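To whoever is covering the structure queue this week,

Two jobs came back overnight. Logging them here so there's a record in the thread.

Job A:
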Amino acid sequence: MEAVQNEKGDTTRGESTPGESTRGQISIHTENIFPIIKKFLYSDHEIFLRELVSNAVDATQKLRQLASFGEFSGELGDLKVTVSLNEEDKTITVSDNGIGMTADEIKKYINQIAFSGATEFLEKYKDKTGAGQADDKGQIIGHFGLGFYSAFMVAEKVEIVTKSFREEASGADHSGARWVCDGSTEFELSPADRAERGTDVILHIAPDSEEFLNKGRLRGILDKYARFLPVPIEFDGDVVNNTTPIWTKAPSDLTDEDYKTFYRELYPMSEEPLFWIHLNVDYPFNLTGILYFPRIKNEFRFQREKIQLYSRQVFITDEVKDVVPDFLMMLHGVIDSPDIPLNVSRSFLQADANVKKINGYITRKVADKLNDLFKADRKAFEEKFDDIGLFIKYGALSDEKFWEKAKSFVLLKNTEGAYYTFDEYREQYQVNQTDKNDTLVILYATDRRQQDAYVESARRRGYDVVLFDTVIDPHFINSIEYKLEKTTFKRVDADTLDKLIDKGLNNESVLSEDDRTKLKELFEQALESKSLTVSVEAQPTDELPVTITLPEFLRRMKDMSALAGEQSFYGNLPMNYNVVVNANHPLAGKILATESEDARKALIKQVYDLALLSQNMLSGADLTAFVRRTVETL
């Protein structure tokens, strides 16, 4: 027989006989749990101030609601929360003039860990507040009842001095209760001499937490967590919060300047946003907020700490990856949802059904907003596309639902500055740029100036060239090819034009087969490079005598490896270029006719360097030698 202490502290016995099942009760020792709660309730100890201020806000909101229900007829007065610092006494005090507590309520709400007064209040008045939710003007923040104990993460002793609004209404001049605890499971509860309703929570800061006995430190915490709480928060003589941020207001009551002013309040060092979306939904979840579209530079990195997540105007986190899709992380703004608790964890965000619904809703709203802007003012949308194209393309390749909406407003910009949707581009160019397999070939350049010779060559043939010069474009092209029917993308310098858009036609060569073979051998001997593959092809006479290309597949793999910032298999491959000699160019015949080996090699080197120069690949001593040879022939 073995003695076991049950949850009431009584001793019970349970028999343990081999082969028989037994029943019993797990013994729970609060003295073992309490140190864990004190030290590990939250990973960041500064959270204590958010929790205590939120509790104080709840106390004032409850009083305001009771007044609206007709259960409090006294004067509300100037409802506020005050945070006070006494560096000499080493105390921090959070005060409110809200609902207050009686001694019995202290026993109920404070001495029972995890008993939530907020939850009980909402349940009691759910018929008046609507399905357990407080109205917008009196929203109740707390839920779990553990927040108060965060005080012990930084305090060696905590006092509560409080007086209930009911005791105040009874006419008692000096009544109230004092609760004192030193962090153990023992407490002292005694009468207190308090004249007015409300609560003071006094923290006697522990030696290892004296960093919080600093005005600047406390103000920073309040700026972070209490910036938009719905009740005035006073610290060091100033009100530190905006109680009515614009996301709590109706869009019809706001002007463009209101949105811009709020953006400057959030991001004082940022450029003015392009436009914004005001979020407001109450079913199947509750969510409000504002998302701003910043001017996105041509760089692919997530700018963390740009979207802020709130719950009933209390800041939770700026790590919102699981609340919004990855591609929306480039936006700025605020999301506020009471369906996300204050003590949110990463695992909660990943598993919660409401969070997944919020994620999908925000994606849909962003896509709808962009589509509306595109339809309402095409010209204005095109003017913004250089700033938002990176964001839209990332969304299109990473989120299938976004792509379904975005494919009607993702724009292709050609090298002449004209914009097309995919459908418009196909309609405009499919006749001339469809190959023998009935596939539309979209030629593109990544650098208009560097690839100018190739772009101009394509334009002479009546082909259009699209500009893909953002860092995300290699991935975008690779992804989008799988989503578009009978469409392929080829970089304009990836091969000769006749191979890029193969219509099944063969140009006649002015050279015999023997001459073409000999010309190939002469180039291989003169260039002496194992990284070059030489071929001789019949091309129009107005094309370059020599063209240097890198196969499309290798270009894409290398570009994507560079974007990922890692050394991949393709990123480490040597640059094996194709050297294409134009058999129909007059210089081909001139090379064959040159008898002097040195003169022939110099001519081959000259036309090869010319091809390198057209790709911006000629530099250093090779460029100097090319210039010298050019001068000598003039």
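Job B:
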Amino acid sequence: MNIHNLEDMGCGTSSVTKDKKSEKALKAALVIQNWYRGYSARLKTRQRYALTIFQSIEYADEQGQLQLSNFFSFMLENYTRVQEKEPGLVTRLFGSNIQDKDRQDYLGLIDVPDSYCGPRLQFPLTFTDIDLLIEAFKQQQILHAYYVLEVLFETKKVLQQMPNFTHTNTSPSKEITICGDLHGKLDDLFLIFYKNGLPSATNPYVFNGDFVDRGKNSMEILMILFVSFLVYPNDLHLNRGNHEDFMMNMRYGFTKEILHKYKLHGKKILQILEEVYTWLPVGTIIDNEVLVIHGGISESTDLTLLHRIERNKMRSVLMPPIPMDADYAERKNKLGTTIVAQGIRTSGSFSEQLTKQEWEQIIDILWSDPRGKRGCYPNTNRGGGCYFGPDITSKILNKYQLKMLVRSHECKPEGYEICHDGKVITVFSASNYYEEGSNRGAYIRMSSGMTPRFFQYQITKATCFRPLYQRVNAIESSAIRMLKERMISRKTDLIRAFQLQDRNKSGKLSMGQWAFSVENVLGLNLPWRSLSSHLVTTDKDGNIDYMSGFQDVHIQKPVKEVQSTLIETVYRYRSDLQIIFNIIDSDHSGLISMEEFRSMWKLFKSHYSVHIDDSQFDELAERMDLNKDGSIDFNEFLKAFYVVHKFDKLNKSDSKLE
């Protein structure tokens, strides 16, 4: 064999070896790729489960919030009886609180000291003030109460001239940007303005409600939006959301933020803000074809009626109209204040309320959610508004010659979602809404005749650079923690339900029995079977030790002798009780009298059918009054009712990579 043949043979062998190596490498790459896809899919599934938990608990809380309206209705319906027994309490709940004071009554005694180094606004405002405010807030400066009140008074004056629905037009050269919920997340607003430009006559915006609550910078967002609105009233449109509501703010944080940042003038700010909310338009119509509202529609949505409603009569979702006879309606309390059916704490006539039909129309557009199922049915998750199907969307849009509905109100993993054959778009602009890494934010740009364009983003903190599995573990851990807190607040009811199923008194239930009991008691429609490994221990036969769900958490008890049912009840209803307390505590001192506290509890207990002996609560109240001055610091008291996690199971075994 000559040298050429040898070389030919060598080359052939080398080629075959290379082919085999390439084939192995390709197979290995495919195995790794398939493994990674499966791994990523499992992480995404866990993330979806966590988001489902967050959303279910959020909606359950909102449902509890709306149920408070029944309590206030109960107060008004039983006004005569309650007034006889507890005159002081009723006066505090429904007495005159807000009067129509002018600007000088609020601003006359407020000085801006020379030492104040925050932004100083010049009225009438210009685009320079928008820049000034944004730069100050980036430096975490606080706008002085004097300027906050000036902005609120000026905003109210301009809003009073606006219709219920603002109309605006676009062109191919003038797009409009629609932003969804911001919920006090200032960094998201900064990022939107950085990417999309500041509002101006050539860069119009619609902010579709829920500017406040939950996040820590609701005041800053409100001031930027209101100042921008005052500079560009025809090009920046502000729709009311379900959180532009003074009662919602008491539960979800904005009231607390204001009183913390403005200790001296917080009460004045809250009073004027309550008025401003009522004058916010309820929707925007773009090019006579796109309806932008915060929540959604129902089969009975009547845009003609909604255009005519006196929207400023809608004080709060928690103050529904109550049918009353004329004599009852005009009955006066000792202060000469009319007890109006909507619970508005102002002097005036019974006509100051909306009709039931008008009130329901506004509730529907602020609270409703789209679903794939046809028809219109009660929104059982939130407790207010409705679920509306694609047929309802088509019916309402066709009736009013509209092409599309843009709404917000729901957190979406990608920041937006399209449904109902492209006729409904949800946009949500608060990224990391539930937990860092939980969701992206988005905004929409659209103009006449053009397809809407979506822009997504996510505020990135240092922790966002962690590997995906670590971020998912953190989100999942937080979600499970919230579930455990929900379970501990219903511990007595859960144990009773478990024991009804456990006929053999073995302390164990099948997976199906446990899941049925938990869903029945908590009222959360969740994949309990999948979640069980995070919440309880299971034996080798697949049976669940149902008491294990309470082993690593408990409610901190301020008084050991008080029965656990009372502790759980106070924890479960702590937000509702705090809202009622805050209304009674009209001067926001954080204190109410022992008698008011007892009266509040008795009324609450009566309406919510809580079966707890009054002596138990009296004992708790006595022990709460540590300095025996006859007053109770309820805010401090509630801090004693928090859930203690002895250890976090997710940090041990459940967070292992799957």
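Note for Job B: The chain has 25 helices and 21 strands.

Please reply-all if you pick these up so we don't duplicate work.
Q.
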